[in-house]
Write a structure and sequence with these properties.
Largest sheet of chain B: 8 strands, mixed
Oligomer: heterodimer
Distance between the termini of chain A: 63 Å
Number of strands of chain B: 8
Number of strands of chain A: 10
Number of helices of chain A: 11
Shape of chain B: globular
Strand content of chain B: 15-25%
Structural class of chain B: alpha/beta
Mean pLDDT of chain B: 94
Radius of gyration of chain B: 18 Å
Helix content of chain B: 25-40%
Number of helices of chain B: 10
Distance between the termini of chain B: 45 Å
Low-confidence stretches of chain A: 317-345
Mean pLDDT of chain A: 82
C-alpha cells in the first residue's frame, strides 16, 4: 500500500486522525481479524515493525513480529518504543508494541492502545455464543467491541434502523407477531420478568402490535429509533415507555412521550433522537412554523381547546388594535381553524 | 457507505484510511493520485534493474509515446516481455505509478517489462489510448532484436482500465495478424460499457470503483459522440465484451474481485473465452474490492499477486526457480 493509504505518519494527531485509527481497528474486529492479520494491518498503518507477545496456558511465551511489508521476524530487532499490556478481565495476557526507528509519532500511543484492545478482543477465550447471548451482548454491551462483535455474529449491519421492544404479559409468554420483525439472527431475551426484542423499524406493524397486546393483556413499550450499534443506548426508553402503559393504552411508543422521554433513567439521550424536539427545531426555522409553535404554546397554557380558542381570539383582537407584545401569540385565521380541527387527546 | 460484511478484515481496515476520490472532478482526482504516487515512489529502490525511458512513434500521425522499459541488469539473451498498461478509468494514472509493480515483475521473473504511458481520456478519447498501446506492441515486436526481446514471448497485460486496453490491444493484434501475442494478463479488467451485469447494478458505493465511476469512465473514454450503453457504434476494441468472436486469442489469466462492479463482466469474458476454445485461468478472490491489491501486505493481496505472477511465468514459459 506504500503511500496509497494514509499511514500513521501522515495522519494529524487531531480528533479526526484519532477517529481514523479507531475506525481502522474497529474494522478489523468487525470483520473477524485473527492475531496475524492484526499484526500485518498494524504494521502497515504504523509503517514500522510491530510485535505481540502472548502467554500460553502452560506459561509458554509466543512472540510474533511483523514489518510494514508483512515480513515476519524482521531484523534488526529494536527495543519497543511504545508498548501496552493486553488485559483480559483482570489478567495480563501479554503485550503489544511497536519498534519505531527515529522519533516517536504523536499517534503512536493511540495506535498501541487500540492494538492492545483489539488483541484482547481477539484473544478472549470463548465458546461460540448463542444468538440469544449475542443479542444480550448487543443490548447490554460491556464495551464498543462487544457491540461490533455481536452485530457481526448476528449478521446485522450496524447501521440498520431498529427499535427495542419491551413487553410484559401474563404468564411471561412472548408476544406473537406474524412476520418476523427481528433483524439478522437476533432473538428475544428475558430479563427480570420483561421480554426484550430487537425489531427492524421498517417491519414494525403498529396495528398488529395493538391487537396482539389487547388480545394477550400485554403491556408494550417501544424505544426511540436507533442504529443497531446504538440500540443499547435506548433500551431505557423502551422500558420507560412500557412504564407509561395502562389498561386503556397497552402500547406506548417512546416517540409519543415527546420530551418526557428525557426523564428516562440511564445514559443521556441525544436530543436529535427525539422526534418532537427535531420537529420543533424544524418548525422554528420558518415563519409559519413559528406561528404553529406559538399556537401550541397557547393551547398548552390554556389547558383546553375552548380556552385556547378564546385566548387566541382575544390576542388576535389585541394585535389588531396594535399591541406588538401580543404578536408572537397571535395566530392567523388558518391557524385557528387548524387548532379547531386538531384531534386533541 | 455500506459495510460489506464479507470484506477481508485487513482490507476492511484499509478502507478507513483510503483518501476520498471524486472521479467526476478529474483535475482533483489526478492531483490526489499523483500526490499519492509521489509518496510511494519517493523511497523506491531500482537495485538490480535497469530502467530506460524510451519514446516510440505514435500510430499514423499521432504524437510519440513514452515507454518505461525495465530489464534485469546484465542480461545477454533475448528476454520475454510484458507490455504493461496502467489503470485509472481511462482518465487518470501514469505509467510511473506502476513502477513498483514493474520492478517486482522484473526481479521475480527475470523478464523485461514495457510500461506504456498512453494518452488519457477525455482529452484523448478512443481510439487514441488504444492506438498508443497497440503502437507500443507493434514497435516492440518490430524492434525485438534491438530491445533484446524474444518476439515469440510477448505478453500484454493491464489492470482495470489497463486490463480493458490490454484485451482490446490483443483483439486488434489477432485481427491485424502482425504480432503473435503469447499471453494476456487481465487483472480486474474494465471491458463492457453496457454496464448490465448484476455486480455493476449492485455495487453503487463500493470502495475505489463503483457504478457511478464506471458510467463517467466510459463517457470520458468513448467521447462526445457516445450516446450510452445502447450505442451500437461502440468498437469492440474499446469495449472488448462487445466482441462476438473470441476465438484464436492467446492463453489468458483473468482475475476478478468479489466486491467489484467489474466482477461479472470479467467472469463473463473469461467464460466466453473458454467457450471459444481459449485456455483460460480465472480466479475470483473473496473478500476483496476493486484495487484492493494496493493493500499489498494483506494476505489475500499476496495470494492474488503470487497467482498472477505464476500465471505470467507459465504463459511466457519462464522456468520456475528450483526450490
Amino acid at each position: 500500500m506504500q503511500g496509497l493509504m494514509y499511514r500513521l505518519a501522515e495522519l494529524d494527531a487531531d480528533s479526526a486522525g484519532m477517529v481514523r485509527v479507531i475506525d481502522y481497528f474497529d474494522a478489523l474486529v468487525r470483520h473477524g481479524a485473527d492475531a496475524t492479520s492484526l499484526l500485518r494491518a498494524s504494521a502497515a498503518l504504523a509503517d514500522c515493525v510491530v510485535g505481540i507477545e502472548t502467554t500460553g496456558k502452560v506459561g509458554s511465551r509466543d512472540v510474533l513480529r511483523c514489518d510494514r511489508r508483512g515480513q515476519w521476524s524482521p531484523l534488526p530487532q529494536l527495543a519497543p518504543t511504545t508498548a501496552k499490556d493486553i488485559v483480559l478481565g483482570d489478567v495480563v495476557a501479554g503485550r503489544v508494541w511497536i519498534e519505531r526507528p527515529g522519533e516517536k509519532l504523536p499517534l503512536d500511543d493511540m495506535l498501541v492502545d487500540r492494538m492492545a484492545l483489539t488483541a484482547a478482543s481477539i484473544l478472549q477465550p470463548r465458546r461460540p455464543l448463542t444468538d440469544t447471548e449475542q443479542t444480550r451482548n448487543l443490548l447490554f454491551p460491556v464495551d464498543e467491541f462487544a457491540v461490533l462483535t455481536a452485530c457481526a455474529a448476528l449478521r446485522i449491519e450496524p447501521s440498520t434502523a431498529v427499535r427495542v421492544l419491551v413487553s410484559t404479559m401474563a404468564g411471561g409468554v412472548r408476544l406473537p407477531m406474524s412476520a418476523d420483525p427481528a433483524p439478522g439472527r437476533s432473538t428475544g431475551i428475558e430479563m427480570a420478568g420483561e421480554h426484550l426484542d430487537l425489531v427492524l423499524d421498517s417491519r414494525l406493524r403498529e396495528s398488529e402490535l395493538y391487537q396482539a397486546a389487547a388480545t394477550h393483556s400485554a403491556c408494550v413499550g417501544i424505544s426511540l429509533a436507533a442504529k443497531a450499534s446504538d440500540a443499547h443506548l435506548l433500551v431505557g426508553t423502551a422500558r420507560f415507555a412500557r412504564s407509561q402503559t395502562s389498561e386503556r393504552t397497552p402500547v406506548v411508543y417512546a416517540d409519543d412521550l415527546g420530551a418526557l422521554v428525557l426523564l428516562t433513567p440511564g445514559p443521556r439521550i441525544d436530543h436529535a433522537r427525539i422526534p418532537d424536539i427535531v420537529r420543533a427545531l424544524e418548525l422554528s426555522k420558518s415563519e409559519s412554523g413559528i406561528e404553529l409553535l406559538a399556537t401550541l404554546r397557547v393551547y398548552l397554557r390554556s389547558g383546553t381547546l375552548r380556552a385556547a380558542a378564546d385566548s387566541m381570539h382575544c390576542t388576535t383582537a389585541v394585535w389588531r388594535t396594535g399591541s406588538p407584545s401580543c404578536r408572537i401569540m397571535s395566530g392567523s385565521a388558518s391557524m385557528r381553524s387548524r387548532i379547531g380541527r386538531a384531534q386533541w387527546p | 457507505m455500506s459495510q460489506f460484511p464479507t470484506l477481508d478484515p485487513e482490507l476492511a481496515a484499509s478502507i478507513t484510511m483510503l483518501p476520498e476520490g471524486d472521479f467526476s472532478d478529474l483535475p482533483a482526482a489526478r492531483t490526489t493520485l499523483n500526490d499519492m504516487v509521489d509518496t510511494m515512489l519517493a523511497d523506491l529502490s531500482f537495485d538490480g534493474v535497469l530502467l530506460q525511458e524510451l519514446t516510440i512513434p505514435g500510430l499514423g500521425g499521432d504524437p510519440d509515446i513514452a515507454v518505461r522499459f525495465f530489464t534485469p541488469d546484465n542480461v545477454q539473451e533475448p528476454l520475454p516481455v510484458l507490455l504493461w498498461i496502467h489503470g485509472g478509468g481511462f482518465a487518470v494514472g501514469t505509467a510511473a505509478s506502476c513502477d513498483p509493480y514493474c520492478l517486482d515483475i522484473v526481479r521475480e521473473l527475470g523478464i523485461a517489462v514495457a510500461s506504456v504511458d498512453y494518452r488519457l481520456a477525455p482529452e484523448t478519447p478512443f481510439p487514441g489510448p488504444l492506438d498508443d498501446c497497440y503502437a507500443a506492441l507493434t514497435h516492440i515486436h518490430a524492434h525485438a532484436a534491438e530491445w533484446g526481446i524474444d518476439p515469440a514471448r510477448i505478453a500484454v497485460g493491464g489492470q482495470s482500465a489497463g486490463g480493458g486496453l490490454a484485451a482490446g490491444t490483443v483483439l486488434k493484434a489477432r485481427d491485424e495478424g502482425l504480432v503473435p501475442v503469447a499471453f494476456q494478463l487481465l487483472e480486474i479488467p474494465e471491458l463492457d460499457d453496457r454496464l448490465h451485469t448484476v455486480s455493476m447494478a449492485e455495487f453503487i458505493d463500493t470502495p475505489l470503483w463503483n457504478r457511478p465511476n464506471a458510467i463517467l469512465s466510459w463517457r470520458y473514454y468513448l467521447g462526445e459522440s457516445y450516446t450510452g450503453p445502447a450505442d451500437p457504434s461502440v468498437s469492440l476494441y474499446a469495449a472488448p465484451s462487445r466482441a462476438t468472436d473470441l476465438s484464436a486469442l492467446p492463453p489468458t489469466y483473468l482475475c476478478t474481485m468479489e466486491l467489484d462492479p467489474l466482477r461479472d463482466e470479467g467472469i463473463d469474458y473469461a467464460l466466453r473465452l473458454l467457450q471459444a476454445g481459449v485456455s483460460v485461468e480465472l480466479h475470483s478472490f473473496s473478500g476483496t474490492f476493486h484495487g484492493s491489491g494496493l493493500v499489498a501486505t494483506a494476505e489475500v493481496s499476496r495470494r492474488a499477486a503470487a497467482e498472477s505472477r505464476n500465471a505470467l511465468r507459465r504463459g511466457l514459459r519462464v522456468p520456475s526457480p528450483v526450490l
